[in-house]
């Protein structure tokens, strides 16, 4: 609630875009809080912040948690911030109990996860894990022409550490679900097994614009009448590939978009997702077959352009099992879940064993100022995170064997 | 082709919007041509021009033909202009042959049929026939704020005659079809029996915008998935009510219209047409029943607002029969046709027996600079018009009985 005051909106949300003065203020607040908890601070060349609590054995790679503290323009208090603050709370708890871990613990705040001001999204974790180069990220500009490099320097977060050089033993990220599944199932903890793969397409149907009154039905080349059949299939296809299939048409542009003119051209987006590469590929095959049939049936030109493809990202089996075991041990209701959205953990999973812990959010609503979550759920998620980190880092002087690294 | 030079576009079309300097130039050209053919000129208070060729009996109401000489912003040479020039050509032909009719003949050029610069469309014939008041028309403004009254005065066509006071014995209008039916059927003359009735609606489907990745199919309230089912039904409904049923969704607006957000709201237009009031009403009933079912099935809010309703306009049976008989007598291939578009004849039919003569246009294309028509078809249409007018006006000294009035 204290962090949420920085960039607070009248409707109860937060507007704190990456690399703004408000982002600097939040970063400064986080670092001060980390220092007050006895943590050491490192900032890398893309502005990622790492707060380290020393372990008994400084040669072990750290067990890392974290998320992001930038928000959407009309974002909520919990998206990202929860994961960072849960990490901070764990350190404070260990301090209070005088518990020392074998491996060091770290709390990461990744730069520009949201991508609202600068693309690509998940920028800090993406550079950290080599998904794209730092120069590409540096050259990204906001709508007023300011670059990431200049804004990092301006707010004082252009660090010295080379992003890829930072070791990670393993990684856990706690996050609100941003969907309705946990709430609908009345479960406190989502044991996230991985993220959905995604295929994005742009589809264009070209017919012939003509007069809505003078053109008989049989003479029409109505681009929208064909496009709506494909839009229906995008949804039907996902429903056939339950439970994790998703099919969405989010964007539609009709030309000339006039009440009494039969549409001559319709452009629309198609978004397919599923949990395994095999299922996602099968959806791709079925969608293309449907469109081929539709092209033959209608005689209209239909172009399909693949614009993005991210394969599913399964998290580390051992990390997933740890989350599940700790949720059970602590007596929280839990279920396996899958993430449909992007998270820093997806990139970190490329360089270290990783998993995520979901907690419910009210109505499944996120990226919205009314985003909300139950304190008891947030506490449960932080407790699961604590025990996962202790399990992996090992407790100095206990019989548990450190397993991190 | 001479008239088409006024406002000619590089692509071979005409851009001559109502009450512009180009419209004045075209009106001046037409009046000069009428005077050269010995015709008297009257202009009424809404700028309608009537060119009169005297008959033997000045007490008989005139047999009138005509159309309009304003065009769309990217219009063609033939829409409207053909009907006015066919009337002028008929007078020249009668002059050449020294034929005098019993009743007078008139050629009307109605003001602002297209409605591109000022609404309502079919303004001159609408005021003439009392569809709406002259003050309503006078107050119409273009996008720069200029009014019809001021522009009529500026170009010198604010006449003195009260529009409703002008007598019309009967009315024939020759026009390009602006659709593909005659060309597809390889017929030269369309005997127009009337115009389609029309019902326009705005439909709004309200769901819940949510994340395309994190929201499972069963949890969605996807406004577009419901809207596309209704859009499909608009087309299917019209196909069930062949041959004259028409169903068009021309306009679609999706909110927030973002690739990875499930649409929360979709607004779209629905345009239904048919040849009889009974069929059009039946289509209305079926559409509303489908939407009621869809509302129950989906649980989403669906609003339907009726925004326009014009009942079908059947033309005068005797005038239709005259067109059909003259086409047959002259040996032209012909068929019954129905007009799906608005024409001045629809308003004139409210105050006098009326019918229309269609000729094919290339590819059915109109309201486009590439609009085109075969000279032989244009000649055939003018010949049918000539014989219809002679039939109704009667030829002085012949055995034919004048039937106009």
Architecture overview:
- 2 copies of one chain form a homodimer.
- By secondary structure, chain A is an alpha+beta fold.
- Chain A has 2 domains: 3-195 and 313-393, Aminopeptidase (3-Layer(aba) Sandwich), CATH 3.40.630; 197-310, Alpha-Beta Plaits.
- Helices cover 33% and strands 22% of the residues of chain A.
- The first copy, chain A, is built from 11 helices and 16 strands.
- In chain A, strands 1, 2, 3, 4, 5, 6, 14, 15 and 16 form a 9-stranded mixed beta sheet that branches. In chain A, strands 7, 9, 10, 12 and 13 form a 5-stranded antiparallel beta sheet that branches. A two-stranded antiparallel ribbon of chain A has the order 8-11.
- In chain A, a hairpin with a 5-residue loop joins strand 1 (40-43) and strand 2 (49-53).
- In chain A, helix 2 packs across helix 11 (375-393) and helix 9 packs across helix 11.
- The longest helix of chain A is centred in the C-terminal third of the chain and has 22 residues, at 277-298.
- Chain A is elongated and about 85 Å long.
- Chain A starts with 20 loop residues before the first helix and ends in a 12-residue tail after the last helix.
- Mean pLDDT of chain A is 95; it is low at 401-405.
- Chains A and B meet through strand 8, helix 7, strand 9, strand 11 and strand 12 of A and strand 8, helix 7, strand 9, strand 11 and strand 12 of B.
